[in-house]
Design goal:
The complex is a heterotrimer of chains A (about 120), B (about 190) and C (about 375). With about 120 residues, chain A is an all-alpha fold. Chain A has one domain: Up-down Bundle (Methane Monooxygenase Hydroxylase, Chain G, domain 1). In chain A, about 70% of the residues lie in helices and about 0% in strands. Chain A has two helices and no strands. Chain A starts with a helix and ends in a 7-residue tail after the last helix. The mean pLDDT of chain A is about 80. Chain B is an all-alpha fold. Among the domains of chain B are: about 80 residues, NADH-ubiquinone/plastoquinone oxidoreductase chain 6, subunit NuoJ (Four Helix Bundle (Hemerythrin (Met), subunit A)); about 55 residues, no CATH class. Helix content of chain C is about 65%, strand content about 5%. Classes of the chains: A mainly alpha (about 120), B mainly alpha (about 190), C mainly alpha (about 375). Chains in contact: A-B, A-C, B-C. Chains A and B meet through helix 1 and helix 2 of A and helix 3, helix 7 and helix 8 of B.
Chain lengths: ~120, ~190, ~375
């Protein structure tokens, strides 16, 4: 693939964007350190809790369904990636290709159907 | 078809070493990081580096897949896992050194490393032939540009390889993914009942 | 000029354009919000007159305000940077520091593969006005889109505050859920045009004329993409990650000064990026009626006009989406979380899969 100048362009662009981000972060640090005077007050550096005393910690355990969503995401992401090469050349693959891809999609579609039927995606 | 050995420019060389060092350094950081979320973050940078290596191998598709699946998917999954079991977060790094675990780890690493070396050596034997084959495989990327097609009308995409030569692995992959899906359901059901 | 130096033109154009438009978007958002809520919105800090930047520098510019409110974003930016950057002791310092950076980066990077204007003719060779015309365009978009969950997830976690963490986790789950729909909508477009390169896709749409626009060939994908774009950007009706009534500010609750501003900026850049993608894939990109006639002209000047008009056309289409999402934001209420997840997994994903199969069936001859 003869795409090396394009890669250089992407790198320059990434570099510019990253530099911008770092400059902003640096500016913020600089302004806080040298321009401002931090006035510590009671409660100023506590976790925000709408003005009432802190209730419990942030390190609580979470609903396991969020984890299920993450797993689902990875699986369907993989499916998307697998479908992409097909998407570009499906016309030349013709009906045979369509049948093959239907099997592939159906297997995962059935999986999703099962998931829904079992109620694994129900959020109360 | 002609195969040419591409010589990297000095700038590309510097970039190459930068990517290499970044990959290895972040991999090391994964092992030594005190906080587990830092380790996960270092792992994502390591994956990013691996993706960079694919770019140097002209395997653009693989590089993008590495980004999408590993950096964007697997690491998010790992982060979720860490966030959800966060009570153990502070407990990491406690207790003395476990020499047995260290020894086992070192032995495993050694075995994996030597087997990889052997595999690479085997691949390298008919060097020219292997390179040609690899070059051909890289040519089967998703992004066939219009210019490529004009120059080489019979060129086929990765889709043809997946749907033809590698059809069985392709369909088996869907079964594998299905198994993971069902496994996830089982985990969630157990949690909600308990 | 060396051909490579020309390549810097689109890079600077995209970088400068996006950075320059963001403050304008903030202003527009506030004005539109005010319009819908029957208020005035920002109307003090103008280009000339009292409160204007020149006035503050000591230059007298008269009593009348000119374009009052337009300079408000500048005032906001200065104020944000000048504010104390509070790093509370309970946060994870490094991740807290860099999370805003990761919120800003991905939407910006996605712009690298979007052609923003008609190709320039340089030494008889066409150079598309795009940062990088890579063969794996869509994969690049998907890759950086999948990185966009990092900023909010890390920000929420590092803050060590339960509202922030809840917001971060909600945001991550939402973004990854709708990313699937987004990716599959992209797939259908790739099938339609047999290409994963945005530059090629725009080219085909241009050749097809007005009826060649993607929205006429892939209406379902267009709909899916629009919905997913809203969800990816955490905009109403999908703004659960930061719903004020439940979560204070969501994942950026503990952030102050310009670091909060970076999350803010990232959101607007993401809107622009989604608008740009939508325009590129479904609305003919930079195409406008009459381009063919203008670009066929022998005069170099007319050709340059054709390119400039294409930039304007792309800008109008992009801003169309942005204005639409602002309108929606101040009109619709937000979803409940279960509705959000149901829509994502039980509607969007199956419909997107169906769309792919449908596209294949319709186009195989």
């Amino acid at each position: 693939m003869n795409s090396s100048p394009e890669i250089v362009s992407i790198l320059i662009f990434c570099g510019l964007v990253m530099a911008m981000g770092l400059v902003i972060l640096g500016l913020v640090r600089f302004a806080t350190k040298f321009l401002g005077t931090a006035k510590p007050k009671k409660g100023k550096y506590d976790p925000y809790e709408c003005g009432v005393p802190l209730l419990g910690s942030a390190r609580e355990r979470f609903e396991v369904r969020f984890y299920l969503v993450a797993i689902l995401f990875v699986l369907f992401d993989i499916e998307t990636v697998f479908l992409l090469p097909y998407a570009v050349s499906y016309q030349r693959l013709g009906m045979a290709g369509l049948g093959e891809i239907l099997v592939f999609v159906a297997v995962l579609g059935l999986g999703l159907l099962y998931l829904v039927k079992r109620g694994a995606l129900e959020w109360e | 078809m002609e195969y040419s050995v591409q010589i990297m420019s000095p700038a590309a060389h510097i970039l190459f070493w930068f990517v290499m060092v970044m990959t290895v350094a972040s991999a090391a950081l994964v092992v030594v990081a005190k906080k587990i979320l830092h380790a996960a973050f270092a792992l994502s940078i390591c994956f990013l580096g691996v993706s960079g290596i694919y770019v140097f191998l002209h395997a653009d598709f693989l590089a993008a897949v590495q980004l999408i699946v590993y950096v964007g998917g697997i690491i998010v999954l790992i982060m979720f896992a860490i966030m959800f079991s966060s009570h153990t977060q502070e407990a990491g790094g406690e207790g003395g050194r476990h020499y047995l675990a260290l020894g086992a780890g070192a032995a495993t690493a050694l075995i994996v490393f030597t087997s990889v070396l052997m595999m690479v050596g085997k691949l390298n034997q008919p060097l020219a032939e292997q390179n040609n084959r690899a070059y051909e495989a890289y040519q089967h990327t998703v992004g066939i540009t219009a210019a490529d097609l004009a120059a080489e009308p019979q060129r086929l995409g990765l889709g043809h390889m997946l749907m033809g030569e590698y059809l069985l692995p392709f369909e088996v992959a869907s079964i594998l993914v299905l198994a993971a899906l069902l496994g996830a359901v089982v985990i969630v059901r157990k949690e909600t009942k308990g | 000029m060396a051909p490579y130096l020309w390549k810097l033109l689109p890079i600077l154009l995209v970088f400068g354009g996006v950075l320059g438009i963001v403050p304008l978007l903030v202003f527009l958002e506030r004005k539109i919000c005010a319009l819908i809520q029957d208020r005035l919105g920002p109307n003090r800090v103008g280009i000339l007159g009292p409160d204007s930047p020149l006035e503050i520098l000591g230059i007298k510019t008269g009593e009348k305000r000119f374009l009052g409110g337009l300079m408000q974003p500048l005032a906001d930016a200065i104020k944000l940077i000048a504010k104390e950057d509070i790093i509370p002791p309970h946060v994870e310092k490094y991740l807290f520091e860099f999370a805003p950076f990761f919120a800003l980066l991905p939407p910006f990077l996605a712009f690298a593969v979007i052609p923003v204007g008609a190709p320039l003719m340089i030494d008889g060779k066409e150079m598309p006005l795009v940062v990088a015309d890579v063969g794996v365009g869509f994969l690049w978009i998907l890759a950086v889109a999948s990185l966009s969950a990092y900023g909010v997830a890390l920000g929420g976690w590092a803050s060590n505050n339960k509202y922030a963490l809840l917001g971060g986790i909600r945001a991550t789950a939402q973004m990854i859920s709708y990313e699937i729909g987004l990716g599959m909508a992209l797939l259908a477009v790739a099938m339609q045009y047999q290409s994963v390169e945005p530059v090629q896709i725009v080219k085909q749409q241009v050749e097809g004329g007005f009826l060649g626009w993607g929205v006429f060939h892939q209406p379902l994908a267009f709909l899916l993409f629009t919905i997913c774009a809203f969800a990816e950007n955490n905009r109403l009706p999908f703004d659960l990650p930061e719903c004020e009534a439940e979560l204070v500010g969501g994942y950026h609750t503990e952030y102050s000064s310009m670091k909060f501003g970076m999350f803010f900026q990232g959101e607007y850049i993401a809107m622009l990026t989604m608008g740009g993608l939508l325009a590129t894939l479904f609305l003919g990109g930079w195409h406008y009626p009459g381009y063919a006639a203008l670009s066929a002209s022998d005069s170099g000047f007319v050709q340059i006009v054709a390119v400039v008009l294409s930039l304007v056309s792309f800008g109008i289409k992009t801003m169309g989406f942005v204005l639409f999402s602002m309108w929606v934001r101040w009109t619709l209420p937000r979803f409940r979380y279960d509705q959000l997840m149901n829509l994502g997994w039980k509607v969007i994903v199956p419909v997107a899969l169906f769309n792919i199969v449908l596209t294949a069936m319709l186009n195989i001859h």
